TrEMBL record:
GO terms for molecular function: oxidoreductase activity. Keywords: Oxidoreductase. It comes from Fulvivirga sedimenti. Belongs to the short-chain dehydrogenases/reductases (SDR) family. The keyword Oxidoreductase applies. This is SDR family NAD(P)-dependent oxidoreductase.
Length: 234
């Protein structure tokens, strides 16, 4: 029986790379995104290449009720989630004093609350089994603020705080918690930027780093993984 991984925001960028890595390692996958067509394409692609099953539910992770519906969807498929990757996120550039009204709420809802509510929903079964690994996709913006980062930096600082607290709470419960902090990665968030692709990290490199952390023995947890482009931050 295959192990199961849940990856939010799985149709593009880092999320898709993690799903491909998981399928390569024989995992069944449960994922979500807002675009139903992209989810169907992902399912056809993964199941056509790998011996893995991919299940999905179109979900707006910024809405609590939809996150809770996604939890019920997962529970209807499996009683055992081995790995949870809180990857869904949104980036709206701007400065605190002049960014669009509602920018903070949108990014807190998507980047922080989605991870909080999904994790709370799936933790009880992990705690009963004393097994599981939770990855929270933070950012170098979780530790270094920058101009035009605005509420994105606020949300990512908060996500790292959530991840650190969760790590402390899960220490004696057999559940590993890892914060992934990637720098600039070549994803849709950087569309329109006039920089060469090679200036960015590859999504696959982030997925490989995550999997290396997962592959450690149960006696060890990699608490934080920081990755940056070879030439440094952008």
């Amino acid at each position: 029986m295959n192990k199961t991984i849940v990856v939010t925001g799985g149709t593009k960028g880092i999320g898709k790379a993690i799903i491909e890595k998981a399928a390569l390692n024989g995992f069944d996958i449960i994922t979500c995104a807002r675009n139903k067509d992209y989810l169907h394409e992902l399912k056809e692609d993964i199941e056509g290449k790998f011996e893995s099953r991919l299940s999905f539910l179109p979900t707006d992770m910024s809405r609590k009720e939809e996150v809770e519906e996604f939890v019920r969807f997962i529970e209807g498929i499996t009683e055992t989630v081995d790995v949870l990757v809180n990857n869904a996120g949104v980036f709206l550039p701007g400065e605190i004093h002049k960014e669009d009204e509602g920018a903070l709420e949108k990014m807190i809802n998507t980047n922080l609350y989605s991870a909080y509510y999904l994790t709370r929903g799936l933790l009880p079964s992990m705690i009963r089994r004393k097994s599981g690994h939770i990855f929270n996709m933070c950012s170098t913006a979780s530790i270094i603020p920058y101009v035009n980062g605005g509420s994105y930096c606020i949300s990512k600082f908060a996500l790292l705080g959530f991840s650190k607290v969760l790590r402390e709470e899960m220490k004696d419960k057999g559940i590993r918690v890892t914060s992934i902090l990637p720098g600039a990665t070549f994803t849709a968030s950087w569309e329109g930027v006039e920089l060469p692709e090679e200036r960015f990290m590859r999504p696959e490199d982030v997925a490989d780093a995550l999997w290396n952390a997962y592959d450690l023995s149960d006696r060890t947890v990699m608490e934080e993984v920081i990755l940056r482009p070879m030439l440094g931050d952008i």
